[in-house]
Design brief:
There is one protein chain. By secondary structure, this protein is mainly α. It has one domain (2-186, 194-410): MFS general substrate transporter like domains (Growth Hormone, Chain: A, Up-down Bundle). It contains 18 helices and no strands. Helix 2 (24-35) packs across helix 10, helix 6 runs antiparallel to helix 16 and helix 7 (125-151) packs antiparallel against helix 11. Residues 6-403 form the Major facilitator superfamily (MFS) profile domain. Its main location: membrane. The chain crosses the membrane at residues 47-64, 71-93, 99-118, 130-154, 166-186, 207-226, 246-267, 274-295, 315-338, 350-374, 380-398.
């Protein structure tokens, strides 16, 4: 029962941050319309979100176990509550930058804490993988919900900033999450008394010297580069390439989140019978095929008025389905990596995961934004084929290294 309360606290925290973090695509579109910023300027919001995630994860991942995961989670949620209240009052582009910077800092703390807590409440590699996939699945449900929550606050007047009132609702959800975490009996982890914070930080850095970890972080970086490049710019792609209204563009983007959620839930069952390496390679091949089939359909579309999601062209439904195929990659490689380490090293490893995931997210969004601005939306999405090809190679190397670690552990 005690573990169930902790799991609930982790799940709700992830649900909240899924809405906040993945709203960046909608906010980019709204910032362009409401505040008149360029696509390149709007793309900087991804950096304001991801760079703090990387910096904070790198600096505090090894320190969080010392203050306790509960205290860390409550501090992160407090920061989010304050910024969600400030943003609609300020009503400016700089306020959105500050909000995403705060959310990024808070999520770095939350992700390190949640991943470490998963190791504490599970007792086997199989249960660890199962719970991790469940938590990541809840995250994707939050992403899906976020599209519709934000869409409910959008209006036909694209220049109006009334849509910022959504952050009052999110402040209320943050407060409820704070109370749930506060009520959970999350114990402070037992640490080696001989280890200082400096030693803990050095141990985290030493992880990067392991070949398995190095190949893993490259794989994670490339995956998030693809996911954020597509997910962040999909609302703008729908609006400016497919010529859909703003609200319809955002609503159809939720298919991407739904596909990710469904893909992770299905993968949990498929991976019980299929080797993870074969499965992930099939997924990558499917992603590339979908891109090559869908993007030509976005050319020379008929100028038919679109008033609802049912009037949208077929391409608007097909492109987001890439999420179904990419969904299993991230949780699978994370679980394999964490399961190969001792539990006391999970927080440090998670810090590295978050750092490189954040860097990948920022890189993917910025590249997509600049290509979108100076070439076209089609060119921007065709660019995703390059990291898909590279990640096929890194997965091969990751599999070889993981097998070598498993053999040496058995000996």
């Amino acid at each position: 029962m005690q573990n169930m309360r902790i799991i609930m606290a982790m799940a709700v925290s992830y649900f909240l941050f899924a809405i906040l973090l993945n709203s960046v695509g909608t906010v980019i579109l709204q910032a362009i319309n409401t505040f008149g910023v360029t696509k390149a300027q709007a793309a900087s919001l991804e950096g304001f979100k991801d760079i703090p995630i990387a910096i904070v994860s790198f600096l505090v991942a090894s320190f969080i176990p010392r203050i306790g995961y509960k205290v860390a989670l409550l501090a992160a949620l407090s920061l989010v509550i304050v910024m969600c209240l400030v943003t609609p009052i300020a009503g400016s582009f700089w306020a959105l930058k500050a909000l995403f910077a705060a959310v990024g800092c808070a999520f770095a703390i939350v992700k390190v804490s949640v991943y470490a807590l998963i190791g504490q409440v599970t007792d086997s590699a199989k249960s660890h993988s199962s719970l991790l996939n469940t938590i990541e699945g809840v995250f994707m449900v939050g992403v899906l919900s976020g599209y519709w929550v934000f869409a409910a606050f959008l209006s036909d007047d694209v220049a109006s900033n009334n849509w910022l009132n959504v952050y009052y609702l999110l402040a209320g959800l943050s407060l409820l999450t704070f109370l749930l975490v506060f009520s959970a009996q999350i114990e402070k982890p037992k640490l080696n008394a001989e280890h200082s914070p400096k030693n803990d930080f050095i141990d985290m850095l030493r992880l990067t010297y392991q070949p398995l970890v190095l190949v893993f972080v490259i794989s994670a970086f490339l995956y998030v580069l693809i996911e954020q490049g597509v997910g962040t710019w999909l609302p703008t792609f729908n609006n400016q390439v497919l010529n859909l209204p703003v609200d319809v563009s955002v609503q159809l983007s939720s298919i991407f989140a739904a596909s990710l959620a469904l893909g992770r839930l299905l993968a949990g069952q498929i991976l019980k019978k299929v080797d993870w390496y074969i499965f992930l390679n099939i997924c990558i091949a499917g992603m590339a095929t979908l891109v090559l089939l869908t993007l030509p359909m976005t050319k020379n579309l008929p100028t038919v008025p679109v008033t609802s999601v049912f009037d949208a062209p077929l391409a608007a439904y097909l492109m987001p389905l890439i999420g179904l195929l990419m969904a299993p990659i991230y949780p699978v490689i994370n679980s394999i990596m964490l399961s190969s380490l001792e539990k006391h090293r999970h927080a440090a490893m998670t810090g590295l995961i978050v750092v490189f995931s954040a860097l990948g997210g920022t890189t993917g969004s910025l590249i997509t934004g600049f290509v979108f601005e100076y070439m076209s939306g089609q060119h921007a999405f065709y660019m995703s084929l390059i990291p898909m090809g590279i990640i096929t190679l890194t997965l091969f190397l990751f599999k070889k290294r993981a097998q070598q670690v498993a053999c040496s552990s058995a000996v």
